[in-house]
Amino acid sequence: LFAFQLAEMKTKLDMSERRVSELEEERHRHPPEKERLQVLGRDRLSQEMKETKVLSEVLHDMKEENKLLKQKNASMIRKQEHYECEISRLNKALKDVLQKKHQSVPGTPSEGVDKNSLEDMRTQLEVLQQQVQIYEEDFRKERSDRERLNEEKEALQKINERLQSQLNKLNSQV
């Protein structure tokens, strides 16, 4: 859903950028002069105001999207911190189990550790190892998603700045 919305926003943005480029080219071909402004009349001025309004709306939408991306990024950072804590906890538990295992392996069941207890510890060790592996995979995925979102956010911020500049230029012309 997010990818679809992002693609839709990029399409709208591309259309707006093309229109802004057309307006910029037209402005360079016909430098603003007093006669030109009189010839344009109210219709042209109204059209430029509508285009400015559309660009303002696009800019507003991009700011909203940027805000949502920042919130999503913050959420992912919190998840990453949670995963890091969980991985540390599991690693400590794994280390404790391994230490207990090494202490009891050289001995025999006559030393106080029966075979069932040893099997239980092995099973627990396998479960913990699998949990660590799952958390590490989730952590890597969250990290890659966060990095991708940061890149998208930076790209959108650059586009946002460029559109804001173009909008200011158009506003100053109107």
UniProtKB/TrEMBL annotation:
Residues 59-173 form a coiled coil. It comes from the Eukaryota. GO terms for biological process: cellular response to lipopolysaccharide; regulation of canonical NF-kappaB signal transduction; regulation of transcription by RNA polymerase II. GO terms for cellular component: cytoplasm. Residues 70-171 form the NF-kappa-B essential modulator NEMO CC2-LZ domain. Keywords: Coiled coil. This is TNFAIP3-interacting protein 3. It comes from Anas platyrhynchos (Mallard).
